[in-house]
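Good morning C.,

I know you're traveling, so I'll keep this short. The sequence:
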Amino acid sequence: RESSWHPGPFCSIVDPLWDLFREHYDGWLMRLKRQFANLQRESNEAVVWAETEAIVSEITDLSLLAVQVLPCIHFMPRQEGYLVHHSLHVSLLAAMMARLLDWKEEEVKEVALAALLHDVGKLQVPEEILHKTESLTPKEMRVVQGHAVLGFRLLQEAGVFPLSVLAVVLQHHERLDGSGYPISVGQAKMHAYSRVLAIADMYDAMTSKKMYGKQHNPFTAARELRRDMSRDRLDVPATRALLAQIHQFLFGQKVH
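The C-alpha coordinates, ready to paste straight into the viewer:
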Protein backbone atom coordinates (compact mmCIF):
# COMPACT_ATOMS: atom_id res chain seq x y z
CA ARG A 1 0.00 0.00 0.00
CA GLU A 2 1.30 3.43 -0.91
CA SER A 3 1.94 5.86 1.94
CA SER A 4 0.29 9.25 1.86
CA TRP A 5 2.55 12.25 1.34
CA HIS A 6 1.93 15.67 2.80
CA PRO A 7 4.16 18.47 1.50
CA GLY A 8 5.86 20.29 4.34
CA PRO A 9 6.46 24.04 4.51
CA PHE A 10 8.82 25.62 2.04
CA CYS A 11 12.41 25.71 3.16
CA SER A 12 14.03 29.14 3.29
CA ILE A 13 15.78 28.65 -0.05
CA VAL A 14 12.42 28.45 -1.83
CA ASP A 15 10.52 31.29 -0.17
CA PRO A 16 12.32 34.31 -1.73
CA LEU A 17 11.72 33.01 -5.26
CA TRP A 18 8.17 31.73 -4.88
CA ASP A 19 6.53 34.95 -6.08
CA LEU A 20 8.82 34.99 -9.12
CA PHE A 21 7.82 31.47 -10.11
CA ARG A 22 4.15 32.09 -9.49
CA GLU A 23 4.13 35.26 -11.56
CA HIS A 24 5.67 33.47 -14.52
CA TYR A 25 3.68 30.27 -14.07
CA ASP A 26 0.28 31.95 -14.14
CA GLY A 27 1.32 33.83 -17.29
CA TRP A 28 2.55 30.64 -18.95
CA LEU A 29 -0.80 28.97 -18.31
CA MET A 30 -2.76 31.68 -20.12
CA ARG A 31 -0.31 31.97 -23.00
CA LEU A 32 0.09 28.23 -23.54
CA LYS A 33 -3.66 27.72 -23.48
CA ARG A 34 -3.92 30.27 -26.32
CA GLN A 35 -1.15 28.53 -28.28
CA PHE A 36 -2.87 25.17 -27.98
CA ALA A 37 -6.11 26.74 -29.18
CA ASN A 38 -4.30 28.23 -32.20
CA LEU A 39 -2.67 24.90 -33.02
CA GLN A 40 -6.03 23.15 -32.70
CA ARG A 41 -7.50 25.58 -35.21
CA GLU A 42 -4.36 25.23 -37.37
CA SER A 43 -4.26 29.01 -37.68
CA ASN A 44 -1.39 31.51 -37.80
CA GLU A 45 1.48 29.08 -37.23
CA ALA A 46 4.07 31.88 -37.31
CA VAL A 47 2.46 33.58 -34.32
CA VAL A 48 2.22 30.24 -32.50
CA TRP A 49 5.93 29.62 -33.13
CA ALA A 50 7.05 33.08 -31.94
CA GLU A 51 4.97 33.02 -28.76
CA THR A 52 5.98 29.44 -27.94
CA GLU A 53 9.64 30.41 -28.35
CA ALA A 54 9.11 33.25 -25.87
CA ILE A 55 7.59 30.90 -23.28
CA VAL A 56 10.45 28.42 -23.76
CA SER A 57 13.01 31.17 -23.25
CA GLU A 58 11.46 32.06 -19.89
CA ILE A 59 11.23 28.41 -18.84
CA THR A 60 14.87 27.75 -19.64
CA ASP A 61 15.94 30.88 -17.76
CA LEU A 62 14.09 29.80 -14.62
CA SER A 63 15.37 26.23 -14.97
CA LEU A 64 18.77 27.63 -13.99
CA LEU A 65 17.30 27.58 -10.47
CA ALA A 66 17.17 23.77 -10.47
CA VAL A 67 16.37 23.56 -6.77
CA GLN A 68 13.14 25.51 -7.41
CA VAL A 69 11.69 23.38 -10.21
CA LEU A 70 10.23 20.50 -8.17
CA PRO A 71 8.69 22.79 -5.50
CA CYS A 72 7.13 24.81 -8.32
CA ILE A 73 5.63 21.68 -9.83
CA HIS A 74 4.31 20.17 -6.61
CA PHE A 75 3.12 23.26 -4.74
CA MET A 76 1.72 25.47 -7.51
CA PRO A 77 -2.12 25.50 -7.38
CA ARG A 78 -3.79 23.93 -10.40
CA GLN A 79 -6.69 25.93 -11.76
CA GLU A 80 -6.62 24.87 -15.42
CA GLY A 81 -6.89 21.60 -17.27
CA TYR A 82 -4.40 18.79 -16.84
CA LEU A 83 -2.85 19.10 -20.31
CA VAL A 84 -1.62 22.69 -19.88
CA HIS A 85 -0.15 22.09 -16.42
CA HIS A 86 1.42 18.81 -17.47
CA SER A 87 3.04 20.39 -20.53
CA LEU A 88 4.56 23.18 -18.43
CA HIS A 89 5.79 20.76 -15.79
CA VAL A 90 7.44 18.44 -18.27
CA SER A 91 9.11 21.39 -19.99
CA LEU A 92 10.51 22.67 -16.68
CA LEU A 93 11.71 19.18 -15.73
CA ALA A 94 13.30 18.53 -19.12
CA ALA A 95 15.13 21.88 -19.11
CA MET A 96 16.34 21.28 -15.55
CA MET A 97 17.58 17.79 -16.42
CA ALA A 98 19.34 19.03 -19.57
CA ARG A 99 21.20 21.62 -17.51
CA LEU A 100 22.19 19.02 -14.93
CA LEU A 101 23.57 16.93 -17.81
CA ASP A 102 25.63 19.95 -18.99
CA TRP A 103 23.91 20.26 -22.33
CA LYS A 104 24.51 23.30 -24.54
CA GLU A 105 22.09 26.21 -24.22
CA GLU A 106 20.54 25.56 -27.63
CA GLU A 107 19.94 21.93 -26.68
CA VAL A 108 18.30 22.98 -23.41
CA LYS A 109 15.92 25.24 -25.35
CA GLU A 110 15.10 22.60 -27.94
CA VAL A 111 14.28 19.90 -25.39
CA ALA A 112 12.19 22.41 -23.40
CA LEU A 113 10.30 23.29 -26.60
CA ALA A 114 9.72 19.64 -27.44
CA ALA A 115 8.50 19.03 -23.89
CA LEU A 116 6.11 21.96 -24.05
CA LEU A 117 4.54 20.53 -27.21
CA HIS A 118 4.92 16.80 -26.58
CA ASP A 119 1.21 16.15 -25.94
CA VAL A 120 -0.35 18.45 -28.57
CA GLY A 121 -1.70 15.36 -30.32
CA LYS A 122 -4.17 15.01 -27.45
CA LEU A 123 -5.87 18.13 -28.80
CA GLN A 124 -7.19 15.84 -31.55
CA VAL A 125 -8.30 13.01 -29.25
CA PRO A 126 -12.08 13.05 -28.53
CA GLU A 127 -12.74 14.68 -25.16
CA GLU A 128 -15.11 11.93 -24.07
CA ILE A 129 -12.16 9.52 -24.26
CA LEU A 130 -9.50 11.89 -22.95
CA HIS A 131 -11.58 12.87 -19.90
CA LYS A 132 -13.07 9.47 -19.17
CA THR A 133 -12.81 8.59 -15.47
CA GLU A 134 -13.38 4.85 -15.87
CA SER A 135 -10.84 2.41 -17.31
CA LEU A 136 -10.38 2.79 -21.06
CA THR A 137 -11.38 -0.02 -23.39
CA PRO A 138 -8.61 -1.52 -25.57
CA LYS A 139 -9.95 0.47 -28.54
CA GLU A 140 -10.01 3.71 -26.54
CA MET A 141 -6.48 3.04 -25.30
CA ARG A 142 -5.28 2.72 -28.90
CA VAL A 143 -6.94 6.06 -29.70
CA VAL A 144 -5.16 7.76 -26.79
CA GLN A 145 -1.83 6.18 -27.69
CA GLY A 146 -2.27 7.58 -31.18
CA HIS A 147 -1.66 11.09 -29.81
CA ALA A 148 2.09 10.76 -30.43
CA VAL A 149 1.56 10.31 -34.16
CA LEU A 150 -1.19 12.96 -34.25
CA GLY A 151 1.10 15.47 -32.53
CA PHE A 152 3.96 14.70 -34.92
CA ARG A 153 1.70 15.27 -37.94
CA LEU A 154 0.19 18.45 -36.51
CA LEU A 155 3.59 20.07 -35.93
CA GLN A 156 4.98 18.74 -39.20
CA GLU A 157 2.13 20.41 -41.09
CA ALA A 158 2.81 23.70 -39.31
CA GLY A 159 6.20 23.67 -41.05
CA VAL A 160 8.06 25.80 -38.49
CA PHE A 161 9.27 23.36 -35.83
CA PRO A 162 12.76 21.74 -35.84
CA LEU A 163 13.10 18.08 -36.79
CA SER A 164 14.43 17.32 -33.31
CA VAL A 165 11.15 18.57 -31.83
CA LEU A 166 9.10 16.47 -34.24
CA ALA A 167 11.16 13.39 -33.35
CA VAL A 168 10.60 13.88 -29.62
CA VAL A 169 6.87 14.47 -29.98
CA LEU A 170 6.71 11.16 -31.86
CA GLN A 171 9.01 9.27 -29.46
CA HIS A 172 8.15 10.49 -25.96
CA HIS A 173 6.49 7.18 -25.06
CA GLU A 174 9.29 5.05 -26.49
CA ARG A 175 11.60 3.10 -24.17
CA LEU A 176 15.22 2.04 -24.59
CA ASP A 177 14.35 -1.67 -24.53
CA GLY A 178 11.83 -1.27 -27.36
CA SER A 179 8.79 -1.68 -25.10
CA GLY A 180 7.26 1.72 -25.80
CA TYR A 181 5.02 3.08 -28.55
CA PRO A 182 4.06 4.04 -31.24
CA ILE A 183 6.93 2.42 -33.21
CA SER A 184 8.99 0.60 -30.53
CA VAL A 185 12.20 2.08 -31.93
CA GLY A 186 14.42 1.08 -29.02
CA GLN A 187 17.74 2.54 -27.94
CA ALA A 188 19.46 2.66 -31.32
CA LYS A 189 16.99 5.10 -32.90
CA MET A 190 15.71 6.98 -29.84
CA HIS A 191 16.65 10.67 -29.91
CA ALA A 192 18.70 11.97 -26.96
CA TYR A 193 15.96 14.51 -26.23
CA SER A 194 13.37 11.72 -26.20
CA ARG A 195 15.33 9.92 -23.48
CA VAL A 196 15.11 12.95 -21.20
CA LEU A 197 11.51 13.73 -22.06
CA ALA A 198 10.35 10.16 -21.42
CA ILE A 199 11.58 10.43 -17.82
CA ALA A 200 10.15 13.90 -17.18
CA ASP A 201 6.81 12.84 -18.68
CA MET A 202 6.64 9.71 -16.51
CA TYR A 203 7.43 11.57 -13.31
CA ASP A 204 4.84 14.31 -13.75
CA ALA A 205 2.19 11.87 -14.99
CA MET A 206 2.69 9.69 -11.92
CA THR A 207 2.61 12.56 -9.41
CA SER A 208 -0.24 14.58 -10.96
CA LYS A 209 -3.93 14.41 -10.20
CA LYS A 210 -5.74 13.44 -13.39
CA MET A 211 -9.00 12.07 -14.69
CA TYR A 212 -7.69 8.50 -14.99
CA GLY A 213 -5.03 6.58 -13.10
CA LYS A 214 -3.77 6.94 -9.55
CA GLN A 215 -1.83 9.95 -8.31
CA HIS A 216 1.39 8.74 -6.68
CA ASN A 217 3.57 10.56 -4.18
CA PRO A 218 7.12 11.55 -5.20
CA PHE A 219 8.64 8.73 -3.12
CA THR A 220 6.74 6.12 -5.13
CA ALA A 221 7.44 7.89 -8.43
CA ALA A 222 11.17 7.92 -7.66
CA ARG A 223 11.05 4.21 -6.90
CA GLU A 224 9.30 3.51 -10.22
CA LEU A 225 11.87 5.53 -12.15
CA ARG A 226 14.72 3.70 -10.44
CA ARG A 227 13.11 0.35 -11.24
CA ASP A 228 12.67 1.16 -14.93
CA MET A 229 16.23 2.48 -15.08
CA SER A 230 17.53 -0.80 -13.64
CA ARG A 231 15.55 -2.69 -16.29
CA ASP A 232 17.23 -0.70 -19.09
CA ARG A 233 14.02 1.04 -20.06
CA LEU A 234 15.20 4.57 -19.13
CA ASP A 235 18.42 6.46 -19.76
CA VAL A 236 20.71 6.05 -16.73
CA PRO A 237 22.47 9.49 -16.57
CA ALA A 238 19.21 11.38 -17.17
CA THR A 239 17.26 9.33 -14.62
CA ARG A 240 19.99 9.76 -12.02
CA ALA A 241 19.97 13.53 -12.61
CA LEU A 242 16.25 13.73 -11.86
CA LEU A 243 16.46 11.31 -8.92
CA ALA A 244 19.14 13.46 -7.30
CA GLN A 245 16.83 16.49 -7.46
CA ILE A 246 13.86 14.48 -6.18
CA HIS A 247 15.87 13.30 -3.18
CA GLN A 248 16.97 16.87 -2.44
CA PHE A 249 13.38 18.09 -2.71
CA LEU A 250 12.02 15.31 -0.48
CA PHE A 251 14.53 15.88 2.30
CA GLY A 252 12.45 16.94 5.31
CA GLN A 253 9.10 16.00 3.74
CA LYS A 254 6.78 13.68 5.65
CA VAL A 255 5.27 10.32 4.79
CA HIS A 256 2.29 9.00 6.76
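Safe travels,
E.
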